[in-house]
Amino acid sequence: MALLGHVARWLDGSLSPGSFQTARLAEPPVPVYFLALIHYLNSASPRALASFGPALEVGHQEYTELEYILTTIPRRAGILAVLLGTLLGITSVYSGPASWGLSANPSVGTTAFVVLMAAAINVGALLWVVHTIRQLRTVDRIHRMATNLNLLHREPLYAFSGLTLRTSIGALLIVYYYHFLAFYPDVWEQQANLTAIDAATIGLTIATALTAFILPLSSMHRRLV
Fold this sequence. Notes:
Blueprint: H1 2-12, H2 22-26, H3 29-52, H4 60-70, H5 75-95, H6 108-145, H7 161-189, H8 196-224
């Protein structure tokens, strides 16, 4: 994907043939990372639920339902995230083309590729946000369902802290990666560009990451005091 984007720019003359831009190389892994992170968290969720199991008194059907909710995104929410992410990506490109490396008169091919990349990044981020919010609500529900909490049996008490920590660190890592590679070189040249939509998406990701770690711990603390 990164190579295709550069080929399009080489052909329309916005980049010298054979030259590369660090920011453009940094973009394609971002949506893939978000999807991989969701998959990783889905694989960790059943283990967290199993560790919390001794604190619950639920039947097999209800347990299976909780596990399903922890590892899925509702169809409507997923479609909404895709549509909204696509709209945000398009708006981001046209409101700040320079931040996406577009020249004053880019070719149709280059513009189409950049719009596709911006949409993919925003869709990936919003899918992760929707997934995380759903997991947080489910974790809070599970905490409120607990009937066998025991301070001497600590494994259930911290069962979901590992999951929420992975969620937070995973999101903060990609924000740092993208911001560093996409904008750090420009900072030295005093040419850094960031559209309001990009800034809002990054801010939402950071806020969700911090909330994902803090709220479950707070929820369990309230149950214990």
